[in-house]
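TASK: fixed-backbone design
INPUT:
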Protein backbone atom coordinates (compact mmCIF):
# COMPACT_ATOMS: atom_id res chain seq x y z
CA UNK A 1 0.00 0.00 0.00
CA UNK A 2 2.81 2.44 0.88
CA UNK A 3 4.59 1.63 -2.38
CA UNK A 4 1.35 2.13 -4.32
CA UNK A 5 0.79 5.57 -2.74
CA UNK A 6 4.40 6.55 -3.45
CA UNK A 7 4.05 5.47 -7.08
CA UNK A 8 0.72 7.26 -7.48
CA UNK A 9 2.22 10.46 -6.10
CA UNK A 10 5.20 10.11 -8.43
CA UNK A 11 3.02 9.60 -11.51
CA UNK A 12 0.20 11.95 -10.50
CA UNK A 13 1.65 14.56 -8.13
CA UNK A 14 -0.84 16.82 -6.32
CA UNK A 15 -1.32 20.13 -8.09
CA UNK A 16 -2.67 23.51 -7.13
CA UNK A 17 -6.38 23.58 -7.94
CA UNK A 18 -6.03 27.04 -9.51
CA UNK A 19 -2.71 27.26 -11.37
CA UNK A 20 -1.83 23.54 -11.66
CA UNK A 21 1.64 23.95 -10.15
CA UNK A 22 2.95 20.76 -8.53
CA UNK A 23 2.51 20.98 -4.75
CA UNK A 24 5.14 20.06 -2.20
CA UNK A 25 2.53 19.16 0.42
CA UNK A 26 -1.09 17.99 0.56
CA UNK A 27 -2.67 21.45 0.56
CA UNK A 28 -5.05 22.44 -2.22
CA UNK A 29 -3.34 25.69 -3.17
CA UNK A 30 0.25 26.65 -3.90
CA UNK A 31 1.83 29.44 -1.86
CA UNK A 32 1.36 31.98 -4.67
CA UNK A 33 -2.35 31.28 -5.05
CA UNK A 34 -2.90 31.22 -1.30
CA UNK A 35 -1.44 34.72 -1.14
CA UNK A 36 -2.68 36.26 -4.36
CA UNK A 37 -5.86 34.51 -5.55
CA UNK A 38 -8.68 37.11 -5.68
CA UNK A 39 -10.51 36.06 -2.51
CA UNK A 40 -14.16 37.05 -2.27
CA UNK A 41 -15.01 38.45 1.19
CA UNK A 42 -18.07 37.12 3.02
CA UNK A 43 -21.09 39.37 2.54
CA UNK A 44 -23.92 39.54 5.08
CA UNK A 45 -26.18 41.43 2.66
CA UNK A 46 -29.32 39.82 1.28
CA UNK A 47 -29.67 39.75 -2.49
CA UNK A 48 -32.97 39.24 -4.28
CA UNK A 49 -34.33 35.94 -2.87
CA UNK A 50 -31.08 34.95 -1.15
CA UNK A 51 -30.79 35.39 2.62
CA UNK A 52 -26.99 35.33 2.26
CA UNK A 53 -24.39 34.46 -0.32
CA UNK A 54 -20.68 33.68 -0.39
CA UNK A 55 -17.98 32.58 -2.80
CA UNK A 56 -14.37 31.49 -2.44
CA UNK A 57 -12.88 33.78 -5.09
CA UNK A 58 -13.73 36.33 -7.72
CA UNK A 59 -14.16 34.84 -11.18
CA UNK A 60 -11.00 36.10 -12.84
CA UNK A 61 -7.41 35.17 -13.73
CA UNK A 62 -6.36 31.70 -12.52
CA UNK A 63 -9.74 31.10 -10.90
CA UNK A 64 -11.54 31.51 -14.20
CA UNK A 65 -9.03 29.27 -16.02
CA UNK A 66 -9.40 26.60 -13.36
CA UNK A 67 -13.20 26.57 -13.55
CA UNK A 68 -13.20 26.48 -17.33
CA UNK A 69 -11.01 23.37 -17.18
CA UNK A 70 -13.36 21.84 -14.61
CA UNK A 71 -16.58 22.57 -16.49
CA UNK A 72 -15.58 22.09 -20.11
CA UNK A 73 -12.38 20.00 -20.18
CA UNK A 74 -13.34 17.10 -17.89
CA UNK A 75 -10.95 18.11 -15.09
CA UNK A 76 -13.36 16.68 -12.55
CA UNK A 77 -10.64 16.00 -9.98
CA UNK A 78 -10.62 19.73 -9.18
CA UNK A 79 -13.97 19.37 -7.43
CA UNK A 80 -12.34 17.74 -4.40
CA UNK A 81 -10.41 20.91 -3.60
CA UNK A 82 -13.28 23.24 -4.51
CA UNK A 83 -15.62 21.30 -2.24
CA UNK A 84 -13.27 21.14 0.75
CA UNK A 85 -12.41 24.84 0.61
CA UNK A 86 -16.01 25.89 0.05
CA UNK A 87 -17.25 23.76 2.96
CA UNK A 88 -14.75 25.48 5.26
CA UNK A 89 -16.06 28.90 4.26
CA UNK A 90 -19.68 27.78 4.65
CA UNK A 91 -18.93 26.56 8.17
CA UNK A 92 -17.34 29.93 8.94
CA UNK A 93 -20.48 31.83 7.92
CA UNK A 94 -23.00 29.27 9.20
CA UNK A 95 -21.49 27.65 12.32
CA UNK A 96 -24.99 26.70 13.48
CA UNK A 97 -25.49 24.61 10.34
CA UNK A 98 -28.34 24.53 7.81
CA UNK A 99 -31.13 22.04 7.23
CA UNK A 100 -30.96 21.00 3.57
CA UNK A 101 -28.26 20.99 0.90
CA UNK A 102 -29.10 21.22 -2.80
CA UNK A 103 -27.68 22.67 -6.01
CA UNK A 104 -28.60 24.59 -9.16
CA UNK A 105 -28.95 21.79 -11.75
CA UNK A 106 -27.96 21.85 -15.40
CA UNK A 107 -30.42 20.76 -18.08
CA UNK A 108 -30.60 17.13 -19.19
CA UNK A 109 -29.25 18.13 -22.61
CA UNK A 110 -26.26 19.97 -21.14
CA UNK A 111 -25.52 17.08 -18.76
CA UNK A 112 -25.65 14.63 -21.65
CA UNK A 113 -23.33 16.78 -23.76
CA UNK A 114 -20.88 17.47 -20.91
CA UNK A 115 -21.11 14.01 -19.35
CA UNK A 116 -21.71 15.28 -15.80
CA UNK A 117 -23.43 17.97 -13.75
CA UNK A 118 -20.50 19.93 -12.35
CA UNK A 119 -22.53 21.44 -9.50
CA UNK A 120 -23.94 18.08 -8.43
CA UNK A 121 -20.36 16.82 -8.10
CA UNK A 122 -19.57 19.92 -6.02
CA UNK A 123 -22.60 19.28 -3.80
CA UNK A 124 -21.44 15.72 -3.15
CA UNK A 125 -18.05 16.90 -1.86
CA UNK A 126 -19.48 19.80 0.16
CA UNK A 127 -22.05 17.45 1.63
CA UNK A 128 -19.39 14.96 2.65
CA UNK A 129 -17.37 17.70 4.35
CA UNK A 130 -20.38 19.17 6.16
CA UNK A 131 -21.98 15.85 7.06
CA UNK A 132 -25.08 16.63 4.94
CA UNK A 133 -26.72 14.50 2.28
CA UNK A 134 -27.32 16.53 -0.92
CA UNK A 135 -30.95 16.48 -2.03
CA UNK A 136 -32.05 16.95 -5.64
CA UNK A 137 -34.68 19.55 -4.80
CA UNK A 138 -34.69 21.27 -8.21
CA UNK A 139 -35.02 20.05 -11.78
CA UNK A 140 -34.32 22.14 -14.85
CA UNK A 141 -37.31 21.71 -17.13
CA UNK A 142 -36.25 23.95 -20.00
CA UNK A 143 -32.95 24.04 -21.88
CA UNK A 144 -32.43 27.80 -22.05
CA UNK A 145 -29.44 29.56 -23.67
CA UNK A 146 -26.39 29.77 -21.37
CA UNK A 147 -26.27 32.85 -19.16
CA UNK A 148 -22.62 33.42 -20.06
CA UNK A 149 -23.65 34.69 -23.49
CA UNK A 150 -26.06 37.32 -22.14
CA UNK A 151 -24.89 40.73 -20.93
CA UNK A 152 -27.96 42.69 -19.84
CA UNK A 153 -29.15 41.79 -16.34
CA UNK A 154 -32.84 42.09 -17.21
CA UNK A 155 -32.40 39.71 -20.11
CA UNK A 156 -30.52 37.27 -17.86
CA UNK A 157 -33.45 37.30 -15.41
CA UNK A 158 -35.92 36.68 -18.21
CA UNK A 159 -33.77 33.86 -19.59
CA UNK A 160 -34.03 31.80 -16.38
CA UNK A 161 -37.64 32.62 -15.48
CA UNK A 162 -39.60 29.40 -15.02
CA UNK A 163 -36.75 27.02 -15.93
CA UNK A 164 -36.73 25.18 -12.57
CA UNK A 165 -39.27 22.96 -10.87
CA UNK A 166 -39.18 21.83 -7.24
CA UNK A 167 -38.99 18.03 -7.07
CA UNK A 168 -39.58 17.42 -3.34
CA UNK A 169 -41.86 20.21 -2.08
CA UNK A 170 -42.79 18.18 1.00
CA UNK A 171 -39.19 18.50 2.26
CA UNK A 172 -39.09 22.30 2.24
CA UNK A 173 -41.60 23.89 4.64
CA UNK A 174 -39.78 25.75 7.42
CA UNK A 175 -36.30 24.60 6.30
CA UNK A 176 -33.12 26.65 5.84
CA UNK A 177 -31.64 25.60 2.51
CA UNK A 178 -28.03 25.77 1.35
CA UNK A 179 -28.02 26.24 -2.44
CA UNK A 180 -24.81 25.67 -4.42
CA UNK A 181 -23.56 26.70 -7.85
CA UNK A 182 -20.13 26.91 -9.42
CA UNK A 183 -20.23 30.57 -10.47
CA UNK A 184 -22.52 33.50 -9.66
CA UNK A 185 -22.38 36.45 -12.06
CA UNK A 186 -25.40 38.73 -11.56
CA UNK A 187 -27.37 36.46 -9.23
CA UNK A 188 -30.24 35.94 -11.71
CA UNK A 189 -29.94 32.13 -11.82
CA UNK A 190 -29.49 31.79 -8.05
CA UNK A 191 -32.43 34.14 -7.42
CA UNK A 192 -34.76 32.14 -9.67
CA UNK A 193 -33.75 28.85 -8.04
CA UNK A 194 -34.18 30.39 -4.58
CA UNK A 195 -37.57 31.85 -5.54
CA UNK A 196 -38.85 28.38 -6.41
CA UNK A 197 -37.58 26.93 -3.13
CA UNK A 198 -39.15 29.75 -1.10
CA UNK A 199 -42.44 29.44 -3.00
CA UNK A 200 -42.50 25.76 -2.02
CA UNK A 201 -42.19 26.68 1.65
CA UNK A 202 -38.49 27.02 2.46
CA UNK A 203 -37.86 29.40 5.36
CA UNK A 204 -34.53 30.71 4.06
CA UNK A 205 -32.16 30.12 1.14
CA UNK A 206 -28.43 30.66 1.65
CA UNK A 207 -26.19 30.51 -1.41
CA UNK A 208 -22.56 29.46 -1.93
CA UNK A 209 -20.40 29.24 -5.06
CA UNK A 210 -16.81 28.59 -5.99
CA UNK A 211 -16.49 31.98 -7.69
CA UNK A 212 -18.39 35.24 -8.11
CA UNK A 213 -18.18 38.07 -10.60
CA UNK A 214 -16.61 41.10 -8.95
CA UNK A 215 -19.79 43.09 -9.53
CA UNK A 216 -21.47 40.86 -6.91
CA UNK A 217 -19.24 42.35 -4.25
CA UNK A 218 -20.34 45.91 -4.95
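OUTPUT:
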Amino acid sequence: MIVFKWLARLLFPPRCVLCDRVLEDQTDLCKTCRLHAPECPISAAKRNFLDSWLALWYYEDEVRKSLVLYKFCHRRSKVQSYGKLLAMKIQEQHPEGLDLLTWVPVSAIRKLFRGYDQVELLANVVGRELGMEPRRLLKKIRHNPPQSGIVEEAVRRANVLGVYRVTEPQQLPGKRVLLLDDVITTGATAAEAARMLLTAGAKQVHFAAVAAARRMGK
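COMMENT: The mean pLDDT is 89.
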